[in-house]
Amino acid sequence: MTPETAYVTPDVLLAPLDPAYLADETPARTGLRWSAFLSADALPRAATLLLQAGWHLEDICGLDVREGLMAVYHFDRMTSPGRLAIRVLMDRAAPVLPSIADIHQGAEWHERETADFYGIAFTGNPNPAPLLLPEGMQGHPLLKGEAARAPLAALLAVPGREDTVLRKAEGFTLLDPAEDAKPAKPAKARAAATEEGADNA
Amino acid sequence: MNATISFDSVLHVVLALVGVAVFVGLNGLLLVYAERKVAGFIQRRPGPYEVGPQGILQAVADALKLIGKQLVRPDRADPLLFWMAPVLAFFPVLLLFLPIPFSPLLTGWDVNLGLLLILAFAGFNVLALLLAGWGSNNKYGLLGAARAVAQSVAYEIPLLLAVLAIAFQEGTLSLTAIVGGQGGMPWQWNIVVQPLAFLIFFVSALGETNRAPFDLPEAESELTAGFHTEYSGMGFGMFFLAEYANMIVACSVCTVLFLGGWKGPFLDGAWWFLAKVYGLLLSMMWFRWTYPRVRFDQLLNLNWRWLLPLGVLNLLATAFVMKL
Amino acid sequence: MHSTETLWSNGTSCPAASADGGCADDQIAGDGYTCRFEQGARPESLILNMGPQHPSTHGVLRVLLELDGEYIVRAEPVLGYLHRMHEKMAEVKTPAQFMPNMGRVDYLHALAWNWAYVGAVEKLAGIEIPERAEYLRVITCELNRISSHLLWWGAYLLDLGAFTPIMYAFDDREMLLDLLQLMTGSRLTYSSFRFGGVYTDASPAFVQGVRQFIPHLRSRLPMYTALVTENIILRRRIEEVGVIPQDMVTRYGASGPVARGSGIAYDVRRAEPYSVYDRFDYEIPVRHEECSMARYMVRMAEIEQSLRIIEQAIESLPDGEHMHPKAPKPSFKLPAGESYFAVEGARGKIGVWIASDGGKTPYRVKLRAPGFSNLALFAECARGTLLADAVAILGSLDMVIPEIDR
Asked: Which domain holds residue C271?
């Protein structure tokens, strides 16, 4: 593990990768310390930098939103803790991400789980078989139907986040309040819509 | 002993065999009950409690259940080897009881090479375990069989060395004569003269009989049930009975060699013999319910690095002292 | 929706397995996992399929092993036999409806999962918790941690072939279950935390019982040490077995006693202080040997530290409400936004991430199980060890399969 003197905050660490968005967060509000949007290509490089700086991967969460499929990588540090969320948005038609299992070995299972639930393909995963779901199962249970999808801005709406943005690329509009952001549908309708979506998979 | 084989002596042996079979069967029931009660006592629970007063009929119920169960053989197992194994495990054990002197009057066959006979027929047990593991066509069984062979072959040597030390000292291989060479008082027993040999013998006997902490051939948490994974009903029952019979033989031989056999401070007789045997059996149970299991390489290391050299040294020392 | 044919996450179909997951090669018996695993094996090695029903894979873990004699050449855990898709259930249930699920993720330390979910919801919705409820949460959660460690201790020794200790451990654990029953109404799958407090207030009987339990368990711990911890056979079985260096902990994201047994003083109660843990005086036990024995010693020391916390909490238990007067009704709506809440479970860092779009049910709930990351390092750790060591390592990771499979 890197000595404490070498500790670099992730905003500096990730700067060479040109994140589209990087913000300071309030742990008391969201449990996060930093959040960033990265491109899929920059992910392995970011994972390498983070591992060298003593960060470990907590989990990988998939997310199905109106803009496409998203994967959220939560990283944390054993010494000087503070959670970093790296978000990568993918095209729904071809959800592919580079695997980071060769860097953070623990990612192998997280990636396989995300592949099971969302159908995201991780290229380079050493053992890309289904992890939690049976082999040969059709469909991905956490994908949502068309009607049930919420815009990303509604999910990640944190009041006051705009004030702590450290970097924001030109044309980054994912977190801008969407015009047609409707309030959520009743749970029942949404569940039905989701099931429909899963069946269609 | 007369060298010619008369009708009388054959009849005597046959009767003895029947007696031994009854003795082993009854003892199996008794020991199963005792083992479970001892386990219960050590684990602060009552143990068998429901079948009969204090659960005394539990072992009978278990035996009836085992007898009543269908015999099942895995599809791709070798039928001949698979069924031969439990038979081979159980029946040779009966022969081991023949030369054991329970008392001067109560000896199946007082042969002057009794010790040799026991050691020779005890070797059958390994073969049975090997056949069971191999014939089951089961990987856990195979691993268990491999362990059983390595373990039995290894532990036979220090066992033999310990026995030889006593044989040297007494100058005979007849079990009756060995008891005759000892007195009735505890300080006249061989254990006082040969404490190291006793220790080696008892530890090796635990290894030979596959008892905890050396129960590796059937290590439950590693090999599910080892060599008898695929056996149920009386197939399993025979192995089970053989294990207890082997324990009795090991403890009997130990009693004869080191603890003065049927002799006691007063009223010599079979009751002293049985009391000593059951004392040893209880300590075997006590070990089982107290210690964790050793690892296989540690088991073999214990044998090759400690028991075997110590056994050789002990034997040399005995020979040296006897020569003086 | 994208391709319907792909079975694998890299977008290809399995080379050796047939479409239904079975094995295309009829020389190999078994499913797709066995089939692929055997293809990588050397011709002379033995493939052993351990589990999902095996005495020492606790629950339904399955491990594929490639053996050279009794040495492990390769290991691959196969998961999913206890998968219940809690994360999907979380999306169709309101937070209050989902609470019972939290008692069933890790049934040995259910209250920590209770806390992680309740904490995430409270953080998102800005719900306040009365001080007394915080103390009651600390007390019950630590009691639950002790009961989890006691059960682990007994079961681990069972794995190592010692049959008796589990009976002694259960003897003490039974008293804990009686106490927790008073507070939660159940004995195993607790779901007694509420948004804004806890289900019931501490009765005098509970307080009295906890006060009596602390010296009782303290008087038992020396016996455990003398009877088991100092046993030479046990020490030889687990000392220097299953060495997990610090970099392996980082690469796999392991936490809890696994990390602390490798010399990393990481405990969520200190790293991300929550509730009132900062008011108590306790230590984070750390060992530097990195082996199974180190993890064993860490857990035994944690029992004592939990007792310290409980002792202080029960003596300084403030008066007041056990539910906040402004606690929301069960049918409340979550505000839009995200929140991540982590707590220290008996097995490590438990994390719950909630993303809500403002509906009655959360939009997405991610459950981060510590056992998942801890077990992931088994394959690397077990390489080159003996079969018996694999059992010792698996046990020392203290896995609870329902938590790993979720």
From this structure: 86-378
